Amino acid sequence: MADGATASALRFRDDEPADEPAVSLDAFLDQPEAVSVRIEGGDDVRRLAPALDRLKLVEVDFPRFRDGRGYSSARILREMGYQGELKAVGDVLVDQLLFMRRCGFDSFAPDAPIDTAAALRALNAFDFVYQPAADVRVPVWKLRHG
Amino acid sequence: MKLLTGNHLTEGHVIWWTGDGWSRHVEQAVDVGDKAEQILQVETAACRVNNGYAVEAEAGPRGPVPSHIKERIRATGPTVRPDLALQPADKSAGSYVI
Amino acid sequence: MYRYDQFDQAIVDARVEEFRDQVARRIAGEMTDDQFKPLRLKNGLYLQLHAYMLRVAVPYGTMDSRQMRVLADIARTYDRGYGHFTTRQNLQFNWIKLEDTPDILAKLAGVQMHAIQTSGESIRNISADQFAGAAADEVCDPRPWAELIRQFTTFHPEFSYLPRKFKIGLTASDNDRAAIKLHDVGLQVLRDADGQFGFRVYVGGGMGRTPFVAHLVRDFLPATAICSYLEAILRVWNRNGRRDNIHKQRIKILVHDLGAEEFTRQVEAEFAAIQPLGDDIPLAEYDRIAAYFVAPPFEQGLSDELDLSDPRFAAWVERQVHAHKQPGYAIATISLKPIGGIPGDVTAEQMELLADLAEQYSFDELRPTHAQNIALPHVRKADLYTIWQQLDAAGLGTANLDWISEMIVCPGLDYCSLANARSIPVGQKIAERFADPARQADVGELKLKISGCINACGHHHVGHIGILGVDRKGTENFQLLLGGSGAEDASLAKIVGPGFNEDGVVDAVERAVEKYREIRNPGERFLDTYRRVGVEPFKEAIYG
Questions:
Q1: Which residue in B has a C-alpha nearest to residue C426's C-alpha?
Q2: Which residues contact B41 (CB under 8 A, 6 or more apart)?
Q3: CATH number for the domain including C43?
């Protein structure tokens, strides 16, 4: 990527993005045809459990980057078996990307464009992690004991 | 009067707006009147001050004296370590703090 | 003590480089302070009254001489020749430059130290009983669990943007020297009837604006489930904790608002969902860590005899030395509260002496305590005299543990931008008033704790006598509280009446102490008398 290049969207999936606009959680549960949902900080993502099969895109809103509720929402969705696109939207800065990836986010729509070189650096900053999460990284204790 | 204060970005020490720059010595601070926001915007964006804000002060014999004890302590140093004061050799420098 | 392997070292080194990059971006103006602040706080770097302040982690209060020497070196090279030990067993440097911080962190990483998550809305340093591995009254050494939890909570991706800070404390003894009930999560290690290890889990303790004693949430949690259970607690709070008012965002508020019963129900439900996913750390990893904490090679058959013919040495032994589980050994607590000094402050020279003493006489271990002292955990009784002589010569020989002059004091308005009043001068005046050791001996155990603001870093809520500094229309004012305790009999101190100025509160403390002496029953400490008679007699004595 070119130095200084920025991106207003990052995506780490190969499939086609869902092209339906995301609706609120209540609306999604009310509309059997809907495939995209937008989760606000206070929403309980476990309400999506019966609808996981039709779900293609979950957008999780980060109104302020310090509001960390979305990290739990993402991880819970992955724990429930959701395999569709999980997008972090809003006040997302490059310094949060790694934690978000580890919690299961695979796409990003930050309010402010992110320098792509900085994003790559941030995502690759750590070779080792201490705990399992929603990504495939093996925690250190597993590396220690095989 | 209103003074502007903050901390030096890379070194961290306390600084006071002198009218055309920043000084460690509150005696050199100037009254910014109602221009505080304006000045801070420019200086913060230029990274010449970190965490800047306005404080009340009165005129004193050597220069402005901050009204609140916290700001006077920032101007001179920890009262319990006079050896670490901004002007440790000048025993009267901190006499107005408390 | 624990030694990093290649993985631990790689993680700390990567963190240093990440922060070096973040500092460069900040200095270049690519980040505002608003964006940079949470990042620097996650590396222990505060912007304080006079300069940047760096809080170095001392995990569960265990360090060695090599680390202490590096701290001394940092104090000399990058600071102003001293450091300050805190109520969470960490060390603070008060005069740091932002541009030096990456190099300082690199130096620390070179001796397996860091400043990770020592501030900000993070899971903070795990604190533990400073007598771990030495006291006879513990079920086991709690520190292998503390280390396991430390690793698990480091850079946890789900819990790095919490509503507020989160503090975990551990003990393995019924005598709680770690104040676990005043932590967000307090863990007491137990063994069940079959000898299996487990934790008694307390949640929702804390001081600050709204102090609470933690609630018992689980009587016995099998030890190997601790990571899943902590995740359940953190997740319930991360999802439901308030984020609208910074003073209402700690987990203690959520526990209070939901009620302990509902909070526990939610945690257990979350735990039931998380535990089957297999996040827990296996026993093999616990065993690997525990191998670093086996008892040092104590000499056998040593005498417990002590020559106490030097009265000043005898006085020091009486106050500062505790029994060790191994015959012939002792635990020596070094008071960092000399009369008229600054509680918790240590010069670089003193740090080097402490390093030498630990290396030579204590199997190379030092233990910062949550009362801002330092313990040498494994000292031969035969060596106590020469240790004391060296401490005494360096201004570290004060014999006052648990007496009124051995107080906990936060840095206060002399250093801290959050403070409303100066706390250190009040403490110094009280210490000077009671300087006479005979007077202090007569008063007996009296835990005085002084905070310069409502954030309560001086733990005033759990002082037998607590003092809180407030700002009263621009002047410093001090409230007096009585009857708190941070030990296993935890209780919160109560304000006795209107506040005082600095000299006034010193006099008020003296009147309270004299009242205690007047009405006490034989064997009663100040706290006991207060609990027996209540606040009224003291109120009358103080306010007349």
A1: B80
A2: none
A3: 3.90.480.20
